[in-house]
Design a protein that fits this description.
- Helices cover about 65% and strands about 5% of the residues.
- The chain is built from five helices and two strands.
- The chain has a two-stranded antiparallel sheet.
Length: about 120
């Protein structure tokens, strides 16, 4: 989970919703992977803005893809939790947050599998 295939990326970038979000003619940035050796033909990847990644996972969840649904649900929960923690002066380390997120994703994947199995 987390990797968008070239076909999925092309389909997403060609969609009306993304064009409305990013504007016509949007082209993703290409980022070169840094290396201590300056070699010709180094690996590169296309960087998509956060809005595009969000739209992709939300779309996947809306289509009923179980992993996407559990990821979106867990990330929404974490976002609200961070805001509540700030509002109520609760302090958590990033490691604690990462562990909670991992636990939530695993539990949600189990719950969703069971819910869709019926």
């Amino acid at each position: 989970m987390g990797t968008i295939t070239a076909l999925e990326r092309t389909t997403l970038l060609d969609s009306k919703a993304i064009k409305a979000l990013l504007g016509q003619g949007y082209t993703p940035d290409t980022i070169e992977i840094e290396s201590s050796d300056q070699l010709r033909g180094q690996s590169r990847f296309n960087a998509l803005p956060l809005e595009v990644a969000t739209a992709y996972w939300l779309t996947q969840a809306g289509e009923g893809k179980k992993q996407a649904l559990s990821l979106v649900w867990a990330l929404l929960t974490e976002t609200l939790e961070r805001r509540f923690d700030t509002a109520f002066s609760i302090t958590r380390t990033e490691q604690e947050r990462d562990e909670l997120l991992s636990q939530r994703v695993q539990q949600l994947e189990r719950d969703i599998r069971e819910a869709f199995a019926c």
